[in-house]
Amino acid sequence: MYTFDGGADENSSIYWLKSLKILLSTGKWKRPSKEISPRFNLNVGRRRNRPALSGENWLVNYYRGADKLCRKASLVRLIKTSPELVEACMWFPESYVIYPTNLKTPVAPAENGLHHLINNTRTDEREVFLSSYQKRKESGEGNVWIAKSSAGAKGEGILISSEATELLDFIDNQGQVHVIQKYLEKPMLLEPGHRKFDIRSWVLVDHQYSIYLYREGVLRTSSEPYNSANFLDKTCHLTNHCIQKEYSKNYGRYEEGNEMFFEEFNQYLVNTLNITLENTILLQVKNIIRYVFVFYFHPSLSTRKFAQLLFMLRGLFFYLQQYLIYMGFISMFLLHENNSKNTQQFPCPL
């Protein structure tokens, strides 16, 4: 019998809660009776600052520097300051880091392009955003954006708008850094229902930095038809479970728990588009993961000077652009990382 350490509360994601249930359901794992025990085989919660006991090997879900992966502002800053890849980064939407004006801690305006982002971690990009917004407006390009709290979860701290002043006013009334990101205005939609969805895949990085993609993934689906004319209705734009369950009377109407797993989605793609999941979408998922974990994050992450065996389990979110399907492939965009836990089976090495 193995033991694991890790708690859950009302702020835990549903995937984290499911992972605890999966471990317990195997009959091979149990939780120590004490809330924090010095004796366990697997730490699936936060890292414990205690040395492993003699003769025991701990597996701990922690990599130094991993916070850069799951906070949106850090993710944007890290990608934009990687000059060897940023120009070719077609899979990450145009994004800007914005600080509320009500913060007491001073921030630096992004007057010198990426130099400020590199040299000052508290750089506000609102002027750069406004410049891009104005150029799009003058050229008639799509100009819908989404503001997201850097550390937000469960659909909180989000505003979708085509008005720059509305987005900035929204952020300035908040208490933490936000990211303004170009909204994908032509997403691929599911039928029936003409509904938006995102794809969630899980990546495991072991203590030797070998990278694995879990074979099973899930689509989080909307309950309501996508409506590009109404950005106030969160249920047709945000696929977050908490939003769908709380605000949509159609929650669970199309898929149980508003989730479609890869096997069903693959059949849907074959029937509707005559393509397979493996040869189109998953091919791009693997390529993006290689970029994210090998080129961007590998230099920032470390397991040195830890007695425990460290690993990292991360979820990635993707959306699909609709209009590129007709070119024979589907273009995917990485939205952000999430450190919610899940223990799906059958890892597939990249």
UniProtKB/TrEMBL annotation:
EC code: 6.3.2.25
Record field: transmembrane: 309-335
Keyword terms of this UniProt record: ATP-binding, Ligase, Magnesium, Membrane, Nucleotide-binding, Potassium, Transmembrane, Transmembrane helix
Cofactor(s), names only, from the UniProt record: Mg(2+); K(+)
Biological processes annotated in GO: microtubule cytoskeleton organization; positive regulation of mitotic cell cycle; post-translational protein modification; regulation of metaphase plate congression
Catalysed reactions, semicolon-separated: C-terminal L-alpha-aminoacyl-L-glutamyl-L-glutamyl-[tubulin] + L-tyrosine + ATP = C-terminal L-alpha-aminoacyl-L-glutamyl-L-glutamyl-L-tyrosyl-[tubulin] + ADP + phosphate + H(+)
Alphabetical list of SUPFAM superfamilies matching this protein: Glutathione synthetase ATP-binding domain-like
Any Pfam family hit: TTL
GO cellular component, one term: spindle microtubule
Gene Ontology MF, one: ATP binding
Quaternary structure and partners: Monomer.
Family to which the UniProt record says this protein belongs: Belongs to the tubulin--tyrosine ligase family.
Function field: Catalyzes the post-translational addition of a tyrosine to the C-terminal end of detyrosinated alpha-tubulin.
The name this protein goes by in its record: Tubulin--tyrosine ligase
Species annotation: Laticauda laticaudata (Blue-ringed sea krait)
Gene coding for it: TTL
